[in-house]
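Protein chain data
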Amino acid sequence: MNKINKMLENKLANLKLKYFLENYQAAAQLAAEAQMPYLEFLSELVDGEAAERNERAIE
């Protein structure tokens, strides 16, 4: 793991962004392959984080 990834993962963990932490690498790979615009990539991660938090709140 490179330094940037480690720093990002520490920040995501500190912010308690579990979905981001678990999914950003795979999402980034898919976004790059699909030439997805950055804001669309980011929006998908935010949507996933929000959905997971809503699910946990219901439980």
